[in-house]
Design brief:
heterodimer, A: mainly alpha, 10 helices, B: alpha/beta, six-stranded mixed β-sheet, four-stranded antiparallel β-sheet, 35% helix, elongated
């Protein structure tokens, strides 16, 4: 079996059917723009404050871009029955789910580039450690996508997926050190920060944009990879238990 | 059956429970190579659950499944390249065109681009959908959707095909066309497991039939063998005006060797082991104030067998058809 044929076609189909549709493109553009503007105004600082809020905006753009899409590409298709067609094809479940999530990973990564491109017009990004930024964006997109997958396969309805996503997403904005350091959180909330994957992505980006990171980079990358693998495996187990029951 | 025939689908002791409901209980049957095997039962009998377990959409609680000699019990993926599945609901992508849907389904079976295009065009022609090839699936009529769903199920030329209620809920003309297509696939050598609650459809298409009721297979045999005992009976039907509801009872008292059943629309059904002499019957009915409009000799059908074996009235099955929106044979 030439596995790349179904993989590529599932990815292309999802891109055409969902990700490249005008509402999603505009969502991908407007949302990061709105976040950038909101935090820029809220910071009350000059143009130099852009650099300090950029990592947080990048993480939020990825997080919302990816998790929102999975409820459509997975939960909606399962509800409509077309996901069963994929389950009936002779494709290993792991490969199938990687194909279904690849579009969201690319979409999330593309979302992340928008605030960076915008920031480049206002501040000098030449000092940024791109060798850390780009892998961090990719890993954040992967982890957020698999978080979205975990949510998508834990519910039956699209609205449930959206509600459940918000249960994770909004606390993450405040708990993951995106816009203010974790050290400023109440002590009892800090452990929560360390079990949320965006914390580590944000830490890499803070370091890469010279804002200063709190943890060693290898540890941040290793934990993001571990979160990705863990969330993917739990999602696969949930699919087997709930959808092939 | 069995000698010299190749078992393509072999099911042994298959069972599935959803909460308190035993959806399928101890189902065992075989489908032979090139056979068109029918699974006949009312809604909720366990037909779709059985297909789901055979195709990998549901995990059996117990039992074994072999498809084309491959043990699929723990690994349903093992034989999926050999099977095509047409689910009871059309489940293609509404935002894709008919052509793109078929090409996408072909890609799921790793068919190369040129192969996909050629096969999709060929099937669109075969199913009379060539003119709608570039229209979105969402805009198709129910019958067109059903046809395209069947086309998607056979896009990779599977030697084994599972058809779940293929003609339910569609117009009569489309249902007829689909039955012709199924017969054509069977003629070309495809092994087909067809579920239906249309008795006439099963009778017309299938070589062997399993009756399934409340998750249990109550009888499996060829259509000929199933109908044979009924053919030894003599059945007549009288159309009567001014029929008194007590009339079948009175007739039974007067003619104890015959069996009478009052049907809707003023019909009385008479069954006997020997030839029915209609003269005394007509006289008796007229003496009771009923007027006999017509007396007709009936050919026993699979429907009679189904009613006899399962105890489910054909009327109840018809109501299900109507609820689903027509499309019967």
């Amino acid at each position: 079996m030439k596995w790349w044929i179904p993989f590529w076609n599932i990815l292309v189909k999802d891109m055409r059917a969902y990700y490249l549709k005008p509402p999603n493109i505009s969502w991908g553009l407007i949302f990061p723009l709105a976040w950038t503007g909101m935090f820029f105004v809220r910071s009350g600082g000059g143009l130099e404050s852009i650099l300090s809020i950029l990592p947080g905006v990048v993480v939020v753009s990825i997080l919302f871009g990816t998790t929102s899409m999975l409820s459509v590409t997975v939960t909606f298709e399962k509800k409509g029955g077309s996901f069963d067609r994929l389950l009936l094809a002779p494709i290993p479940l792991k490969l199938l789910m990687l194909a279904k999530t690849s579009g969201a990973i690319l979409f999330g990564a593309a979302n992340a580039l928008i605030p960076i491109i915008l920031a480049a017009f206002w501040v000098d990004l030449s000092q940024a450690a791109w060798s850390a930024v780009l892998p961090a964006i990719f890993l954040l997109a992967v982890t957020s996508t698999f978080l979205g997958l975990f949510i998508a396969v834990s519910v039956s309805e699209v609205f449930e997926a959206q509600t459940f996503s918000n249960f994770f997403r909004f606390p993450m904005i405040f708990l993951c050190g995106l816009f203010f350091p974790i050290e400023r959180l109440p002590v009892f909330l800090r452990p929560l920060s360390y079990v949320l994957p965006p914390t580590y992505g944000a830490d890499i980006l803070h370091g890469a944009f010279n804002v200063g990171n709190a943890m060693p980079l290898p540890m941040d990358f290793a934990l993001l990879i571990l979160f990705s693998i863990g969330l993917f495996l739990v999602s696969l187990r949930n699919i087997r238990r709930r959808w092939i029951a | 059956m069995g000698d010299g025939l190749v078992s393509t689908i072999a099911v042994d002791g298959l069972a599935k429970r959803f909460g308190d409901v035993q959806a399928v209980a101890d189902a065992s049957f075989e489908v032979f190579e090139g056979e068109l095997f029918g699974f006949l039962g009312p809604n909720g009998a366990g037909k779709t659950t059985t297909i789901n377990m055979l195709t990998g959409l549901a995990r059996p609680d117990a039992g074994k499944v072999r498809i084309a000699g491959i043990d699929c019990t723990g690994n349903p993926k093992a034989a999926q390249h050999l099977t095509g599945v047409v689910p009871d609901e059309s489940n293609l992508y509404p935002e894709l065109t008919g052509f793109d849907n078929l090409c996408f389904c072909a890609a799921l079976y790793a068919m190369k681009k040129r192969e996909r295009t050629t096969r999709a065009q060929e099937l669109l022609e075969m199913f009379g959908l060539a003119e709608a090839a570039n229209r979105k699936f969402a805009g198709y009529s129910k019958g067109m959707k059903r046809k395209l769903t069947i086309a998607a199920g056979i896009i990779h030329n599977p030697p084994i095909l599972f058809l779940d209620e293929p003609t339910t809920g569609i117009d009569v003309a489309s249902a007829r066309q689909i039955r012709q297509l199924i017969a054509g696939l069977h003629g070309a050598g495809t092994t087909i497991l067809l579920t239906t609650h249309y008795i006439e459809e099963a009778e017309r298409l299938c070589g062997r039939i399993a009756f399934i009721v409340q998750g249990r297979i109550v009888r499996i045999d060829t259509v000929g063998n199933l109908v044979q005992p009924m053919q030894e009976k003599h059945v007549m039907q009288f159309a009567v005006s001014n029929r008194d509801n007590a009339l079948p009872g009175k007739l039974a008292e007067a003619f104890p060797s015959l069996t009478f059943q009052g049907l809707v629309g003023g019909l009385i059904r008479v069954e006997a082991r020997e030839t029915i002499n209609i003269g005394p019957l007509v006289r008796f009915l007229e003496d009771e104030g009923a007027q006999v409009r017509e007396a007709r000799r009936m050919q026993p059908s699979l429907e009679d067998v189904f009613v006899q074996i399962t105890g489910i009235e054909a009327g109840a099955m018809r109501k299900e058809k109507e609820k689903k929106g027509g499309g019967g044979p």
